[in-house]
């Protein structure tokens, strides 16, 4: 059993059409073009039936991981992914974003819940993808700037009213959230690995949704699967 925990990225928000589409999720999707983690595991273990459940929720912060992990534990997963932190960091203006220890505690709590359900579960921690590159790809396009100005999503990065200095502070905050993954993984060496490739990958324009210029497109979901399935 594969369990996906996370936010709108894992839920495949706006990848092909408006809204979530778990069929193209980089973790649990059945779309053959995406080649999700579940599909890759099925190829590696053709003698087994790999099942998958996607518990990610758009807009979720790490506080929601307790709910997601509890639901995942009911399925007794053998393999799980957690990609969380973007929305925590996007709470830039209310002080919530700076509570890195709360993020660590939430992540650790979810991992503990998964391990309690199956002591041999393998958990892949995935950092927030390279948002500097995402901003770079969209800011030069007028239609993306317009969409960002009208969207309530992640104002510290997407609002045209933010100075470059303020935006860079936000990027550094995301880096700080990502850096905590090493601390978390070291506490669970038998169960967790961190896939760092997505944090620094130079995504291309086709990796980004044309709907919102923010979330991964179908191609982007495919890219994320390729980047995050292996360790390192």
Q: Features of this protein?
A:
single chain, 232 residues, alpha/beta, Rossmann fold, five-stranded parallel beta sheet
Summarize the structure.
The chain has helices spanning 37-44, 65-74, 86-90, 100-117, 131-139, 142-150, 155-158, 164-186, 197-200, 218-229, and strands at residues 2-6, 52-54, 79-83, 122-125, 192-194. The chain is of the alpha/beta class.
Structure, described:
The protein contains 10 helices and 5 strands. A 5-stranded parallel β-sheet has the order 2-1-3-4-5. The protein has 232 residues and is α/β, with parallel strands linked by helices. Helix 1 (37-44) links the parallel strand 1 (2-6) and strand 2 (52-54).
Largest sheet: 5 strands, parallel
Work out the helicity level: 40-55%
Please state the average pLDDT score.
Answer: 92
Number of strands: 5
How does the helix and strand content classify structurally? alpha/beta
- Compressed to H and E, one letter per element, the order equals EHEHEHHEHHHHEHH
How many helices does DSSP assign? 10
Q: What number of domains?
A: 1
Alpha carbon gap, first and last residue: 23 Å
Query: Per CATH, what is the topology?
Result: Rossmann fold
Low-confidence stretches: none
Q: What's the architecture in CATH terms? A: 3-Layer(aba) Sandwich
Beta-strand percentage range:
5-15%
CATH superfamily: SGNH hydrolase
Give the C-level CATH assignment: Alpha Beta
Q: In angstroms, what is the radius of gyration?
A: 17 Å
